[in-house]
Amino acid sequence: MIRKISLTVTSLLGLAAATGFAAEKTLVFGFVAKSNNNPVFQAAKSGAEDEAAKLSKEKGVNIKIDWRTPNEEDPQKQADAVEQLVNAGASGIAASASDANKLTDAVNKAVDNGVPVVMFDSDAPKSKRLAVFGTDDIDCGHKVMSELAKEMNGKGVVAILAGNQNAPNLQKRVQGVKEIAKNYPDIKILDAFYHKETPQDAAAKVEQVMQAHPEITGWAMVGGWPLFTDNAIKWQPGTVKVVAVDALPAELGYVKSGHVQVLLAQQVYEWGSKSVDMLYDKVVENKNPPSSFVKGDLIPVTKENVEEFGKNWEKWLPKK
Amino acid sequence: MSFPPKFRLSFAKFPEGGLILVILVLGLLLTIFGGSVQRPKFQTLPDGKRERVIENGVPAFESVNKFLNPQTVIQIAKDTSFFAIMAVGMTFVIITAGIDLSIGAVYALAAVAGALVMSPYGPSGGGGAVALGIIVTIGMGTLLGFLNGAMITAFNVHPFIITLGTMAIYRGIAFVQTGGQSIGGFPEGFRQFVRWEAWGLSVVPLIVMVIVTIVGGIFLAKLAIGRKIYAVGGNETASRYSGIRVGRVKLLVYTISGLVGGIAAVLSLGYYGAGSSGDGQGYELNVIAAAVVGGASLVGGKGTALGAFLGAVILQMISNGLVILNIPQNYSQIVIGLVVIAAVLFDQFNAWLANRRLLAKTSRIKKEVVQAGDVPVSITPETK
Question: How much is the pLDDT for A83?
Answer without folding.
Answer: 92
